Amino acid sequence: MSENTATAQDQAARFEPRLSEAELRLTEAAREKLRGLLEDARRDDDAIQGVRIYVAGGGCGGMGYGMTFADEVRETDAVLELDGLRIVIDAVALAYMRGAEIDYVEERFGGSFVFNNVFQAVGGTGVCSACGAAGGGCA
C-alpha cells in the first residue's frame, strides 16, 4: 500500500459525521433566520432535510461560501444539529469552514449571512497576495 493511500484511508477513518459547535458556530441571529427559511421551504418540499453549506471558487478573489437546502445527507457529509436545525456540510467544505462562525446581519436594505473566520482552519488571511484586496479580486 502506498503512503498516499494509507494517508487517505487514515483521514477517512477519522472522519466524524457529527459536528460540534466548536467546529462550526452559528450566532443566534443566524439560527433564527435559518430556522424560518427552513420552515418556509419545508411547506413546499417535505424532502428538505436541512441547510447545506458549500464552498466554491478559489483563485485571487478567494473562496466563495454559501448555503442551500439539502434534500439528502450523504455518507461524506458532516452534520451539526442545533435545536431542530440541521446543518449539512461535505468533508471538503468542512476543511475550509472548520472553526468558522456564521452570522446573520440586518442592514438598511435587507439582511445577509456573513461567514467569519473562514480561513482559520487553513491558516489563510482572505487577502489577495498580488494586490492586497480583502475578500475581492484584483482591480
Written description of the protein model:
With 139 residues, the protein is an alpha/beta fold. The chain has one domain (16-122): Hypothetical Protein Aq_1857, Chain: A (Sandwich), CATH 2.60.300.12. It contains 3 helices and 7 strands, in the order αβαββββαββ. It has helices at 3-14, 28-44, 91-97; strands spanning 24-26, 50-57, 63-70, 77-82, 85-90, 100-107, 110-116. The strands form 2 sheets. Strands 3-2-5-4 form a 4-stranded mixed beta sheet. A 3-stranded mixed beta sheet has the order 1-6-7. A hairpin with a 5-residue loop joins strand 2 (50-57) and strand 3 (63-70). Mean pLDDT is 79; it is low at 4-9, 123-130 and 132-139.
Under CATH, the topology can be stated as: Hypothetical Protein Aq_1857, Chain: A
Instruction: Tally the beta strands.
Output: 7
Q: What is the CATH top level name? A: Mainly Beta
> Averaged pLDDT, please?
79
CATH architecture: Sandwich
Sketch the topology as an H/E string, one letter per element.
HEHEEEEHEE
Portion of residues in beta strands equals: 25-35%
N/C terminus separation: 47 Å
Given helix and strand content, the structural type is: alpha/beta
Radius of gyration: 17 Å
Please count the helical segments: 3
Low-confidence stretches: 4-9, 123-130, 132-139
Total separate domains: 1
Instruction: Walk across the major sheet and give the strand order.
Output: 3-2-5-4
